[in-house]
Amino acid sequence: MMYLRFKSKSAENFDVNIISIGNLSVGGSGKTPLVTALALNYENVAIVLRGYGRESNGLHVISNDNEILEDVKISGDEAMIYARKVPKAVVIVSEDRKDGIKKAKELGAKIIFLDDAYSKHDIKKLDILIDVNSENSFCLPAGPFRERLWASKEAVIVKDGVDFKREVELKDKCDKMSLVTAIARPERLDSFLPDVVSKNYFEDHHSFSKDELEDVLKKDGSDSLLVTYKDFVKVESFELPLSLLDLHVEVDKKIFKIIEDYCAKKD
Fold it and tell me: How large a percentage of the chain has pLDDT more than 90?
């Protein structure tokens, strides 16, 4: 079915440089920090994504010209990360990526990063895929993969730890911290974690309530909640004591060269 869908699509040229960053499997792969690191290097840049977990529908411009225009309920957690960490970018959420691309162009974007859009085979773009190791090579529902890497479709495969490397800064460290996180594959954090009182895992994109976080603090007798930036943007308004695992990545220069060569060919 997925192959027929792929073969039936023809890629529309939007006359703008479009780079898609994604992965083929369900769950976290590091695409948000990778998109962030890449987008920071360009002017007249936009980031377009679906906006998983948001409490809104349709197209919304989340940030533009260093101004955040919507709250995290409208944007979703990932779009708010982009709005905060790439302030010069236009950040747009839209279920229809083509509408998002058109809006980004209207707002002056010369290069557009699509978050998780490999499957949008009807958009002309450069596909960069993060390789995620898995012992199960089957597609859903038997395995973790949403789609195959089709032999006739060009894509650049990058590896975490090779083509980009994670770095984590611990901010506002406390003596007793309880980890609270709502990210996919939270075990990815283990190698970066300081000592914590407990690890509290919630479903990816979970919308926290203040009460459930206060319960963790009370249960553990902790001084603060240790969160990732993805969690931070959703809970900072609760005014609870927070410590932050602030993740960013260093990208190999060859990835920028691949993007530059692609853009030069289009020009």
Answer: 71
Spatial contact of 250 and 205, defined as CB atoms under 8 Å apart: no
The backbone region for 172, taken as left when phi is positive above 0, alpha when psi lies in -120 to 50, beta otherwise, is left
**CA distances in angstroms from 113 to 28, 38, 247, listed in the order given:** 18, 9, 19
Go through the domains of the chain in sequence order and give each one's CATH number.
Answer: 2-163+252-266 (3.40.50), 167-248 (no CATH)
Q: What are phi and psi of 260, to 5 degrees?
A: -65, -40
User: DSSP characters for 84-103?
Assistant: HH-TTSEEEE-SSHHHHHHH
pLDDT digits (tens, 9 = 90+) for 7-55: 456 779 999 999 999 886 555 558 899 999 999 999 999 999 999 889 9
Q: What is the CB-side half-sphere exposure of residue 109 using CA atoms within 13 A?
A: 31
Q: Which of 28, 26, 41, 91 is nearest to 250 (CA)?
A: 41
Q: Locate 255 and state its tokens.
A: 């990835």
Q: How far is CA 208 from each of CA 73, 161, 193, 196, 231, rounded to the nearest angstrom?
A: 11, 31, 21, 20, 9
Global confidence as pTM: 0.87
Query: In Å, how far are 167, 223, 247 from 175, measured between CA atoms?
Result: 22, 7, 21
Strand order in the sheet with 198-201: 164-171, 242-251, 224-228, 177-181, 198-201
Alpha-carbon distance of 204 to 255, in angstroms, equals 28
